[in-house]
Specification:
Blueprint lengths: L3 H20 L5 H17 L14 E4 L5 H10 L6 H5 L29 H20 L11 E6 H5 L1 H13 L4 E7 L2 E2 L2 E2 L8 H8 L2 E5 L5 H13 L5 E6 L22 H11 L10 H31 L1 H10 L22 E2 H15 L3 E5 L3 H4 L18 E3 L4 H14 L3 E7 L3 H14 L4 E5 L17 H6 L5 E3 L4 H13 L5 E4 L4 E2 L6 H4 L4 E4 L8 E5 L3 H14 L4 E5 L3 H5 L3 H7 L7 E8 L4 H4 L4 E5 L8 H7 L4 H12 L1
Parallel strand pairs: 1-2, 2-3, 3-7, 6-7, 9-10, 9-11, 11-12, 12-14, 13-14, 17-18, 17-19, 19-20
Antiparallel strand pairs: 4-5, 8-15, 16-18
Helix pairs in contact: 1-2, 1-3, 1-10, 1-11, 2-3, 2-9, 5-7, 5-15, 7-15, 11-12, 13-18, 15-16, 20-25
Family: Belongs to the transketolase family.
GO cellular component, one term: cytosol
EC number: 2.2.1.1
Length: 661
């Protein structure tokens, strides 16, 4: 008679190793070393229901060490989340449900796309923030609508990456007691023993951050792992960090504890040796019925937990109808549509105003329309204009706050924003200076990959930063973000276009949006709500049916371009000016519309943007010209820099004039 518990743990190990061996690609070390952690956590301590993977009050599990995906897929198969044995056999193959690293929205049961080490740790912090905020908003005595934990599992690599320190520093400050981090400590990295580059006392670091720290000496001791998890849950003041000492590749005699177990298949002989060593006698990709029964019994507890919660939730809705109505609004993705016919939302500015200030005004209109709106800045809210007035700041003492103090932690802020959006019930925005989008970019990329509607408020958008100099003047960042699939980059030219940017950000539920905003004041221009929502439009047309030339501009350069048109008109040159606040939206329009705005017959085209000219070629063609930046800028007042680098009406006019010759 088999020992079901041991065999169930070994099922995770062997399935993972078999998947990797069949694919001839993958990372068996983590799954084999962490199998006992996964079995104990998922089977006895996590509240989750495979029959309803989107249950609102489920515990979240993030595999930050995403290279160990074979372990997660084994769990999802064994617990009955819908992954079949054929899915496991197709690990890392084209169009399979079992890609090399876990992908949110692609595989049922995967809570976050992980791959870049440490990113999952940051996203877990965001999930814990969302849970705490929603619990404060909606829980009533005897009615814990939101009462779940966020678990993150990662290894030495996750702890070496700076993002984890950024995120955990904030998590400790905020006292996120529902966050439990499990550290797979095996002292092995790809290059060998971690002592080569990583000798700090991680426990002491986490203690300094404000975590409860717990140590499990034997990573195969299920009871000890279980006691540690329960001890973590018992601390209601601090997040918890559990170090579990494991052996990478556990069970494979030739690989156990060695770097070679990390990132390559075991090999057929070593796989068989591991099976012999672990007492595994089943055929390849076969699991004993007793094991399936063990997992099914544990999964059934999740259904019972949800049934109990559903009954409580129904009572809560009946007893607290006002809270229930507000709860519905938190999940209403169409709430933003209420502003479409609201004239005040689309009102033009009465005087020249910076788009960062215009955005701040809009945020304070949106906060009452979209009650789930929550976010903040990397210590720059007064400059980014991102604070919601008359709203508290989220803190250890006040979970009700909608404003966030992220501190000077741009990379972690990006991950936390992703985690808030992944959790659901929160409409997240984050903010910093545009040049520091370099620090956020990896998390923006994950947001785009996961189709998360996170909004990035990126101010001080150009050489208009002025005196701060080239370290703070973004040049190539617009091109960088525009090159990213599924990222909407919106650089508005006035109040109406800024409103269109925010509307687009909140109306599109499957794309993140970067709002790129000025420090300096913008001219009051004849913009169009309808045109801005199409990403590009004719803001000032030529008198002729076919214009002599077309000037295409964004942001603060639209006003300059309109002035250049007037100069050219006095010379008898009839040009059109196109405002292009969002190339991505423009590209979504019909071919007919794009031809109307940018007729192919007009080859004299000038792009005007205080950034790199990279990417403008598709609009100006081989015959066009670009008034753009060629270097990194300089330190001087903004007006002096715009003149020095050619962003003047005279230079734009001369550039078009040279084309028309």
């Amino acid at each position: 008679m088999i020992n079901v518990e041991n065999t169930s743990v070994n099922a995770i190990r062997i399935l993972a190793a078999e998947m990797i061996q069949k694919a001839k690609s993958g990372h068996p070390g983590l799954p084999m070393g962490c199998a006992p952690i996964a079995y104990e956590l998922w089977g006895r301590h996590m509240s989750h229901n495979p029959k309803n993977p989107k249950w609102l009050n489920r515990d979240r599990f993030i595999l930050s060490g995403g290279h160990g995906s074979a372990m997660l897929y084994s769990l999802l198969h064994l617990f009955g989340y819908g992954l079949t044995m054929d899915d496991l056999k197709n690990f890392r193959q084209l169009d399979s449900l079992t890609p090399g690293h876990p992908e949110y929205g692609h595989t049922v049961g995967v809570e976050a796309t992980t791959g870049p080490l440490g990113a999952g740790m940051g996203m877990a912090v965001g999930m814990a923030i969302a849970e705490a905020h929603l619990a404060e908003k909606f829980n009533k005595p005897g009615y814990p609508v939101y009462d779940h934990y966020t678990f993150a599992l990662g290894g030495d690599g996750c702890m070496m990456e700076g993002i984890s320190s950024e995120a955990f520093s904030l998590a400790g400050t905020l006292g996120l007691s529902k966050l439990i981090v499990i550290y797979d400590s095996n002292n092995i990295s790809i290059e060998g023993d971690t002592d080569a580059a990583f000798t700090e006392d991680v426990q002491k670091r986490m203690e300094a951050f404000g975590f409860q720290t717990i140590d499990v000496a034997d990573g195969t001791d299920l009871a000890a792992i279980g006691r540690a998890i329960e001890e973590a849950k018992a601390d209601k003041e601090r997040p918890s960090f559990i170090t579990v000492h494991t052996q990478i590749g556990y069970g494979c005699p030739a690989k156990q504890g060695k770097a070679s177990a990390h990132g390559e298949p075991l090999g057929e002989e070593n796989l068989q040796a591991a099976k012999d060593n672990l007492g595994w006698t089943s055929e390849p990709f076969t699991v004993p019925e007793e094991v399936y029964a063990d997992y099914a019994a544990k999964a059934a507890k999740g259904q019972e937990a949800e049934d109990k919660w559903n009954a409580m939730f129904s009572e809560w809705k009946a007893k607290f109808p006002a809270a229930a109505a507000l709860h519905d609004k938190f999940y209403d993705q169409d709430a933003i549509k209420a502003v479409m016919e609201d004239e005040s939302f689309w009102a033009p500015a009465e005087k020249p105003t910076a788009s960062r200030a215009l955005s701040g005004n809009i945020i304070n209109k949106l906060k009452d329309i979209v009650p789930s709106l929550m976010g903040g800045s990397a210590d720059l809210a007064p400059s980014n204009k991102t604070e919601m007035k008359d709203e508290d700041f989220f803190s250890k003492e006040n979970r009700n706050g909608r404003n966030m103090h992220f501190g000077v932690r741009e990379l972690a802020m990006g991950a936390i924003g992703n985690g808030m959006a992944l959790h659901g019930g929160v409409t997240a925005y984050v903010a910093t200076f545009f040049v520091f989008s370099d620090y956020i970019k990896p998390m923006m990329r994950l947001a785009a990959l996961m189709k998360l509607p996170v909004t990035y408020v990126l101010t001080h958008d150009s050489i208009g930063v002025g005196e701060d100099g080239p370290t703070h003047e973004p040049i190539e960042q617009l091109a960088m973000l525009r090159a990213m699939p599924n990222m909407q980059v919106f650089r508005p030219a006035d109040a109406v276009e800024t409103a269109a940017g925010w509307y687009t950000a909140l109306a599109d539920t499957e794309s993140p949006t970067a709002l790129v905003l000025t420090r300096q004041n913008l001219d009051v221009i004849p913009s169009s709500k309808e045109g801005a929502l199409k990403g590009g439009y004719v803001i000032a047309d030529a008198a002729k049916d076919v214009p002599d030339g077309i000037i295409i501009a964004t942001g603060s350069e639209v006003g300059i371009s309109l002035a250049a048109k007037e100069i050219l008109a006095q010379e008898g040159k009839d040009v059109r000016v196109v405002s292009m606040p969002c190339m991505e939206l423009f590209e979504q329009q019909s071919d007919e519309y794009k031809e109307q705005v940018l007729p192919k017959a007009v080859r004299a085209r000038v792009a005007v943007e205080a950034g790199s000219d990279f990417g403008w070629g598709k609009y100006i063609g081989l015959d066009g010209a670009a008034v753009c930046m060629k270097g990194f800028g300089a330190s001087a007042p903004a007006a002096a820099l715009f003149k020095k680098f050619g962003f003047t009406k005279e230079n734009v006019a001369e550039t078009m004039r040279s084309l028309l010759k």
